[in-house]
Amino acid sequence: MAIDPSFSEYNRAATERIRRMNAWSEAELSRRVGEHWTAAMTLAPLAFWDRRVLFVLDGTERNGELYLPQIDTTVNDLALPLWAAIPPREAQRLAL
Predict the structure, then answer these.
(1) Domain housing 77
(2) Pair 74, 30: CB distance under 8 Å
(3) Lowest mean pLDDT among 10-14, 64-68, 78-82
(4) How many structural domains compose the chain?
């Protein structure tokens, strides 16, 4: 199955938007973007789920068939205090 090239362009553009956040101050990264989230906190789950995808791809390659670990999307909400504890610059670094 061929991969739609628009996904690669979308990913490149999204990564560039995160990189531009290097110019943001600590205050800007700490700005609230919802009831429980800051701009920096939105980056930590990106890093987590990206690493999960790599874990699945590695397992699939190793096993020769689709590897789907038992993981629930509620992990994101359960980990909210962890995301909040990550310093803003570190959250950005992890997302890249």
Answers:
(1) 5-95
(2) no
(3) 78-82
(4) 1
Answer with the residue of higher pLDDT: 62 or 82.
62
* 18 has a pLDDT exceeding 70: yes
Q: Is the pLDDT of residue 20 over 90?
A: yes
Query: Which value, to the nearest 10 degrees, does the dihedral of the CA atoms of residues 9, 14, 24, 26 take?
Result: -150
pTM of the model: 0.64
List all residues 6 or more positions away from 60 whose beta carbon is below 8 Å from its beta carbon: 66, 67
Three-state DSSP string of the chain: CCCCHHHHHHHHHHHHHHHHHHHCCHHHHCCECCCCCECCCCHHHHHHHHHHHHHHHHHHHHHCCCCCCCCCCHHHHHCHHHHHHCCHHHHHHHHC
